[in-house]
Design a protein that fits this description.
heterotrimer, A: 662 residues, C: 416 residues, alpha+beta, Helix Hairpins
Chain lengths: 662, 370, 416
């Protein structure tokens, strides 16, 4: 199962007389065309697929956001009706959280963790593919509800009992709950996979404290996922049973307490916030040192504050429930823990600033996004601190102030970090550099747009506009120019500026794809292992697995400290290091073989859940698919002997063939 | 990519699914046709699976000779026979037996097919045996494990239903402790003989199953049987004496302790209400109409008492003889129980609601429903 | 790095930060911040959270203002530090700097400082949390029940306020000033949240639970609020208004609420309206004291028609200024403004005047009676009621004739 760094005994009975083995299907072999993508188990291809899908859902969620802003641009908006508006804000949040930021982070993790730790793939490549397909099918499943009677309309927090069958009679919430259970499995398998990869497959010499910070932060995220996803799964399971099988977990008349749902949801929901921002913290912590030409300031502090956030993040969930009536003791305790978690977060901000301090700053687009993150995330973090003051929170919670707060955290923190990562790693992934001039426009329009959109929401919230309202009235808007209507209009205009900024990114992608210019091997003068291979990396990542001596190994192979001045002088170029690697390339490299089964198995799950909602007969059909796929999977050795590949007409000798046959 | 046999059977599967869907939509009488078609779907889908797994029994060109070894023993003809017997018996006795027969038959046929295929797969008997294992173990193990665990758990549940409540708790502790001890032993001595561990597990499982059989034969414990027979919780008896059924199973837990509307305390011969948010004891409580309102009854007097709520005249107008009541079970000294009120009609001069202690109607608290 | 270099580093950091937050920029930022806050506050929004009108809200405000200020200052420091390093350390061809990996002493200092600030904030926060949770100084109790999408208020018997029989009302919470009022909140269906920003923060109304919220107003006035826990389709229309009256005015209000039912004059339009009301409305709505033709009291049984089991009690409807869950005004725009803009001395009299024929908002009331679900989204569409067993949530379409509507309006006007 494990990816092969050394030659190992393949599980297939090679000694037996027949040359054929008993896989269910012959292995797919295409190295080009759609099959190369659909049946791949390569972490880089899967990473890209995660990214592209996430970007698609980003656009979907963005359109939903624009509709919301259009509706609220003026009092008594008529763009959407109440029902559609409720669906829109529910799905906007669901899409952005579960179908954009999380998979985007999963994409980055998939692509760069093996590269950063000097591995050739993840530990369980087929499970990796399964994760992607489950995420994709789960995401499509959730959004199917738009076309079958209406989407979920209970808000992404889906508070009981409002999410019960009586209060939301359409199937939207059924699709939502089942779909999220499917993407939950994807997150869980992904988390286990990456944890095993990071703990077991690091290059020789790479101790945990020499591990790149992005990998560190992603590892913390995977542990958070590992423990948080089961909690939401339990909650969703209860909800599904309540809605589809007449269970009464949240039915007050049957003796239930509806606050149970809130606890379950937020015990997941708060770690989820860190699941969403820590990847971006990791990216920023990679980008800032590269463009400051200085190591990350206080690397151990950043690592441990990340881990601390990972722990304390479990003890703050009830700050989402300060108005729920928990009683003063609980409120006081959670108020205190919430203040406590601000400290490790603050440590990160301080370290980023001190990383730039005294450096040699190069303002690439990636760097700009990272600097933007520091400032804007700080705004979100500080408004978060004001929420930790529980009495104050009872005034601001469920108003636009909190909408402003978490958009500064998730957009200013999460999304800007993602864009920073995209600009930074684009040449690594595609061998071409995104246009920096367009990138500059992209950055400024996004930053201005985001502040125009979410900045006024602070004021709106403090003026008392509650969230989740499909309309606001003039009677409650206040007098004078700067009333609800004004700030809402500003926010709506801002959202379009923001949209233009994001469109520029897409345009940039197209322009770059058409531009034949290749990027240099090491365009940013980078520091970590993923840059010690070609752009894009070879199928097997590294010709020779590097031995690590330093945190920032690649940088230290290029530079040496001048003992007199303590400044650095170059001793090798990236090309020289690359050439050295190619000379010493490993003779035998086994790579995991592609497989049909992950996608088939993943497809069976939405069929089952579809059947749960509409007809149990369909569910049986889906179960048959899952059963056969799991069966076929179980029969397959992870690395197939050469005979088990389909005959390939197009390319007689692909990379896979050669590496597979050793 | 897919073998011919697979395509054939898959086609049949799809066709029969289509037929089933049509049947469901076109005809009203779906019971028989639906069952028949569902069976057909399962069967051809299984065949499709086997066809694709065995690649229609296709062998590489290099392997033309068959195994020269004797074919091994097979249990499947026997099992098939048993399946047929069950099937026939089921037609007479019950549909459950019939379905068991179908399951046995299908499983046996599948096993039989794979075995005969594997024995001709190559001339190497070892390879053939391993081929069969690799094919079927992924099904056999989970199915057998699920069956075995299911039987053990079901047996355990029978035991728990038979033994006394306190014995049940002890049994649970013993079971947990045993698992813990076994786990510790395996962790300390990982080289312990496998057969020993297996023997312990099998013996334990057999013991539980035996206990389960005995329990099932001797029946559930008395109070459970009574409760089931008399519709325990739907049949409340709110008089002052211990009731025949309702007080048999004591509820000893409170689901909601905080934020209940009121705590009703029977203390020093007085019934008082402590309202959430009010610090003075009250003699009346206000309950919002048509909303589930939780109250807690606490008995601070020597003896067992129950709290009764008088819900006024019943809805059916023709029966004026007695008022609707709801009540807690008898609560021992120092005990607590909750009661959920849900009163649809507002109180008025004609329509009084009150809480009182059964047998001491003068100890009462007025319930106002505005 | 040696000791002196470390020292130098720290010193440079501190002085540069101080320099940047120096006099000039400080005033500049201060002025812009203040004008920004002033601009956002100057609009007199009815739900402004920074304009407390009672001791509870004041307590929160006194706590949050310094926190906002501290947060603002820290935010400025971060922004200035970033801008400073961006300007100062831009790549101007300087050599690649020493690869230092951090300075633990500095790190620890910069960790402890925010922790200390937060510790101070925590102390004050704790005090406020427990003060706001107190119930032992309550002077008056009002029960509040949320339902999709309106609030019901009932006043248990409290002789010290002249409440000798339970009072039930909806739409507007009427309370005496200078009195520590405790709301006991619950809900009939989903979770709602009660929020009058000028008087206190919010508290969720959770079905099956009773949760308390302290309210106290300093001066007479009307304070706006809004349900803030998402409660389904018409969440945006679930509003509330708290009316604080002087103690004397409150006594008058109580007396009026307890006044007996006055039947409309014989052969008037209103009397025909009473017949329509008995025919159409008493299924769900109740008017205390209203008798059927056969002399029995007309008691509503909404639980047979409405999912959550209740509809607003319309006794003394015209003493309220709003209807349909405070979604619409019973007063015409002009009359409403007169009440809302009245000074705290005169507002009591104006409010107690109720809704007269001239001031009635005929347009909204008539269209509500004509087709309620069209005015306010509700689950009253018969095709969508499968899950509730045919019971609607909110007022359904009743197919009343224009004639009947006129009669009903005339009748409702008599419910002073």
């Amino acid at each position: 199962m494990a990816i092969i760094e050394r030659e190992i005994e393949v599980m297939a009975p090679m000694v037996a007389t027949p040359t054929s083995t008993y896989g269910v299907l012959k292995r797919p072999v295409a190295a080009t065309g759609w099959r190369a993508w659909v049946f791949t188990v390569d972490h880089k291809k899967l990473g890209l697929m995660y990214g592209v899908t996430a970007m698609f859902f980003f656009i979907v969620g963005g359109v939903e956001a624009l509709l919301i802003r259009l509706q609220l641009a003026a009092p008594n908006g008529k763009v959407l009706n109440a029902d559609l508006y409720n669906q829109m804000f529910t799905m906007h949040a669901t899409t952005m959280v579960f179908l954009f930021v999380m998979p985007m982070a999963a994409g980055f993790a998939n692509y760069f963790i093996p590269l950063q730790i000097g591995a050739r793939d993840v530990a369980f490549p087929r499970m990796n593919a399964l994760g992607f397909w489950m995420f994709l099918f789960g995401g499509i499943f959730i959004n199917l509800s738009w076309f079958i009677g209406g989407a979920a309309d209970g808000g992404w927090f889906m508070y009981a009992p409002n999410s019960g069958p009586v209060f939301s009679p359409t199937h939207g919430i059924d699709f939502w709950a089942f779909g999220l259970q499917i993407t939950g499995i994807a997150s869980l398998t992904g988390a286990i996979n990456l944890i095993v990869t990071v703990l077991n497959m690091r290059a020789p010499g790479m101790t945990l404290m020499k591990m790149p910070i992005f990998t560190w932060m992603m590892t913390v995220v995977q542990f958070l996922l590992l423990f948080a996803v089961p909690v939401i799964t339990v909650a969703l399971f209860l909800l599904s049973f309540q809605r589809n099988f007449g269970a009464r977990f949240f039915d007050v008349a049957a003796g239930a307490d509806p606050l149970l749902w809130q606890h379950l949801f937020w015990i997941f929901g708060h770690p989820e916030v860190y699941i969403l921002v820590l990847p971006s913290f990791g990216i920023v912590s990679e980008v800032l040192p590269v463009f400051s030409r200085k190591p990350l300031f206080g690397y151990p502090f950043v690592v441990f504050s990340g881990a601390a956030i990972g722990f304390v993040g479990w003890g703050v969930w009830a700050h989402h429930m300060f108005a729920s009536g928990l009683g003063p003791v609980s409120v006081a305790v959670f108020s205190l823990t919430t203040m406590a978690i601000a400290v490790p977060t603050g440590v990160k901000i301080i370290n980023w600033i001190l990383t730039m301090w005294g450096g040699k700053l190069v303002f690439s687009t990636a760097m700009k996004f990272s600097i933007g993150l520091i400032v804007l995330f700080t705004v979100g973090g500080l408004s978060g601190v004001t929420h930790s003051v529980a009495p104050s929170d009872t005034q601001q919670t469920d108003t636009y102030y909190i909408v402003a707060h978490f958009h500064y955290v998730l957009f200013g923190g999460g999304v800007l970090g993602i864009f920073s990562g995209l600009y930074y790693w684009w040449p690594k992934m595609f061998g071409k550099m995104l246009n920096e001039r367009l990138g500059n426009w992209n950055f400024w329009l996004m930053v201005i747009g985001m502040n125009l959109t979410f900045g006024p929401m602070h004021i709106l919230g403090l003026q008392g506009q509650p969230r989740r309202m499909y309309q606001f009235t003039e009677a409650r808007s206040g007098e004078g120019l700067f009333n609800f209507a004004f700030w809402n209009l500003v926010a709506s205009i801002g959202s379009f500026v923001l949209t233009i900024g994001i469109l520029l990114f897409l345009i940039n992608v197209v322009i770059t794809a058409r531009n034949p210019t290749k990027s240099p091997l090491d365009p940013w003068n980078s520091r970590s292992l993923e840059w010690m291979t070609s752009n894009p990396p070879k199928e097997h990542n590294f010709d020779v697995i590097p031995t690590v001596h330093h945190l920032d190994e690649f940088f230290h192979r290029k530079y040496e400290e001048d003992p007199a001045t303590h400044t650095m002088r170059q001793i090798a170029t990236a090309e020289e290091i690359m050439a050295e690697q190619e000379r010493n390339a490993d003779a035998h490299i086994h790579m995991p073989s592609p497989s049909y089964w992950p996608i088939v198995l993943a497809f069976g799950l939405p069929v089952i859940t579809f059947g749960m909602i509409f007809s149990h007969l369909i569910a049986v059909f889906g179960a048959v698919i899952v059963f056969f796929a799991a069966f076929g999977w179980a029969l397959e050795p992870s690395t197939a002997p050469a005979s088990d590949f389909e005959t390939n007409n197009s390319a007689p000798s692909t990379a896979l063939d050669t590496v597979g046959k050793s | 990519m897919f073998s011919t046999g697979f395509k054939y059977f898959m086609g049949m599967t799809v066709l029969s699914v289509a037929a089933l869907i049509m049947t469901l939509f076109v005809f009203d009488q779906v019971a028989l046709a639906g069952v028949a078609l569902s069976m057909l779907i399962v069967a051809v889908a299984l065949l499709a699976g086997i066809a694709v797994v065995t690649r229609d029994g296709y062998r590489q060109s290099g392997v033309t000779e068959q195994s020269t070894d004797l074919v091994s023993q097979s249990i499947w003809p026997l099992v098939t026979g048993i399946g047929v017997v069950f099937l026939a018996l089921g037609l007479v006795i019950s549909s459950l037996v019939f379905f068991v027969g179908i399951v046995i038959l299908l499983a046996a046929l599948a096993e039989w097919m794979v075995q005969s295929w594997s024995e001709r797969a190559s001339k190497d008997a070892n390879y053939n045996a391993s081929a069969r294992k690799r094919l079927l173990n992924p099904i056999e193990f989970p199915v057998l494990a699920a069956l075995g665990l299911g039987i053990v758990i079901f047996s355990f549940s029978r035991i728990m239903l038979t033994v006394d409540k306190s014995v049940g708790a002890v049994l649970f502790i013993v079971a947990g402790a045993l698992v813990l001890i076994a786990g510790t032993l395996f962790a300390i001595k990982p080289n312990m003989r496998r057969s020993l561990g297996a023997a312990v597990c099998v013996l334990g499982a057999l013991g539980i199953v035996a206990g389960g059989v005995v329990s099932a034969v001797s029946g559930e414990r008395e109070d459970l049987e009574l409760a089931a027979a008399e519709g325990h919780f739907t049949h409340k008896e709110c008089g002052p004496e211990e009731s025949e059924y309702f007080d048999k199973l004591k509820e000893e837990t409170l689901s909601l302790r905080s934020s209940v509307s009121a705590t009703i305390i029977y203390q020093d011969g007085e019934l008082i209400a402590n309202l959430q948010g009010l610090d003075k004891p009250q003699k009346s409580i206000t309950v919002s109409r048509s909303s589930a309102t939780n109250i807690i009854f606490r008995n601070a007097t020597e003896g067992e008492f129950r709290l009764v709520v008088d819900l006024g005249k019943p809805k059916t107008e023709n029966d004026d003889s007695h008022n609707d009541v709801d009540c807690t079970q008898l609560v021992e000294t120092g005990g607590e129980q909750s009661l959920t009120l849900n009163i649809a009609k507002s109180s008025s001069a004609e329509n009084h609601y009150k809480l009182f202690i059964a047998g001491a109607e003068d100890k009462q608290i007025e319930v106002v429903v505005p | 790095m040696n000791h002196s270099a470390k020292h130098l580093y720290l010193k440079r950091l501190v002085t540069s930060v101080l320099r940047m937050v120096g006099k000039k920029s400080q005033t500049l930022f201060g002025v812009s911040l203040l004008s920004f806050i002033a601009a956002s506050c100057a609009t007199n929004a009815p739900q402004d959270t920074w304009q407390p009108k009672g001791p509870n809200a004041k307590l929160i405000d006194d706590l949050q203002q310094p926190v906002f200020a501290v947060a603002g200052v820290i935010g400025l420091i971060v922004a200035v530090a970033v801008i400073y390093s961006v300007l100062k350390y831009k790549d101007r061809g300087q050599p690649i700097p020493e690869q230092t990996h951090g300075k633990p002493a500095l790190e620890i200092t910069l960790t402890i400082i925010p922790a200390l600030i937060l510790a101070v904030v925590a102390v004050f926060t704790f005090g406020a949390i427990f003060k706001l949770a107190k119930t032992d100084d309550t002077e008056m109790i009002i029960n509040v029940t949320g339902q999709q999408w309106w609030w019901e208020y009932d006043y248990p018997v409290q002789n010290e306020f002249g409440i000798t029989q339970p009072i039930i009302s909806s739409g507007q919470l009427v309370m005496p000033v200078g009195t520590k009022v405790l709301l006991r909140e619950t809900s009939r269906d989903v979770i709602h949240s009660y929020w009058i920003p000028a008087l206190n923060g919010k508290r969720d109304a959770v079905p099956g639970r009773i949760q308390t919220l302290r309210l106290e107003a300093d001066k007479p006035g009307i304070f706006a609020g809004q349900c803030t826990e998402f409660c389904g389709l018409s969440h945006a229309n679930m509003r509330m208004e708290a009316v604080a009256l002087s103690k004397a005015d409150f006594a008058k209000w109580v007396a009026n609420q307890q006044a007996a039912y006055v039947a409309p004059e014989k052969d008037s339009l209103a009397q025909q309206g009473e017949a329509v009301f008995l025919n159409q409305c008493v299924r769900c709505h109740q008017v205390n004291g209203l008798m059927r033709a056969d002399g029995t009291p007309a008691i509503a049984a909404p639980d047979e028609n409405v999912w959550a089991g209740a509809a607003p009690n319309l006794t003394h409807l015209m003493s309220r200024n709003t209807f349909a869950g405070a979604s619409f005004d019973l007063l015409s725009k002009q009359c409403r403004d007169e009440v809302w803009n009245a000074s705290s001395d005169t507002i009591g009299a104006k409010y107690l005047a109720g809704v007269s024929q001239d001031c009635l908002n005929q347009k909204d009331l008539r269209s509500w009676l004509r087709n309620a679900p069209e005015m306010k989204p509700m689950y009253a569409n018969p095709t969508q009621l499968e899950a509730t067993g045919g019971k609607y949530r909110g007022m359904p379409y009743l197919a009343l004739s224009e004639d009947d509507i006129s009669k009903l309006v005339a009748y409702l006007l008599t419910l002073k």
